[in-house]
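Continued from yesterday's entry.
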Amino acid sequence: MKGIKYSITQLLDHQSFPHKHLFFMAGNLPTAKDVWNVAEDTLQSMSSYLDLNEFDSYLNIAPHDTLERLKRIKRLGIKQVQYNLEIANKELFEDTCPGKMKYDLFVGKLIEAVSVFGFGNVRSNFVFGLQDKEQMLEEIKRLADKGIVADYSIFQPKNNTPFQHRPSPDFEDVLDFSNQLVDIYLKYHFKPIFCSLSSRSSIINELYEDRCSTDFSK
């Protein structure tokens, strides 16, 4: 905790930023309760010397064990939570991610989180390239109706994994998917995670901001 405090206060005291994102990513522990215990303790500690409400703040973590957890971290100043499904298809998800909870239960947790954080403040990341594009978009639209925002990363094959021989999606598919995702964001008044100034910026930020500036200029 002391190391976190020193690092972030040094950064804020000696750098200026046009605006600030604060992204918390929790790792794996034996149970989701253990993960949440560490996350909540860390956020509680940080809130003693930082006003978390001043940041665009996100908590990327395993689905909550209780709704009270979500309510407490929201009171601490966290604005959005993210539970990563990775795959937008029930059968493929349960075959590919056997260590995670069942798909319907996972989606139910995302919907519960919307009841606490509000429409558009709950996110889930997907890996583009692991399933059919149109199938993926249909499920993303279904989740968007519930207030859940889809983010994505692009599949890259890695040696000595079950998908080491699977090709990455080509650029045209990535661009088409990204443009369709922007359509969904605009329809539901969602925003991409972070921004084009962030070190975690992505094609979706740039496309979204370009589309918004074009719309405003009309």
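--- second protein ---
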Amino acid sequence: MNQVVRGVFLGNGAKAARSLSETPPDPVANAAAAMQHCLAQAHEAGNEDAVPLLHAVSAILSHSPRA
């Protein structure tokens, strides 16, 4: 029942691995960008309760340590 797999399966795996980016995405930078977008929307909507909170969270994300 044991069979050796050759050809198509192994070849596609190597191509897929090469197409991946070398550097993984930065989740903190992505979160900071999302917070900036939310902050801009809060400013436009005139939501004065959310603006200070979003400023604080944005500041925390911009100064968070990265590995």
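The radius of gyration is 22 Å. The longest helix spans residues 27-45. Will compare against the first tomorrow.
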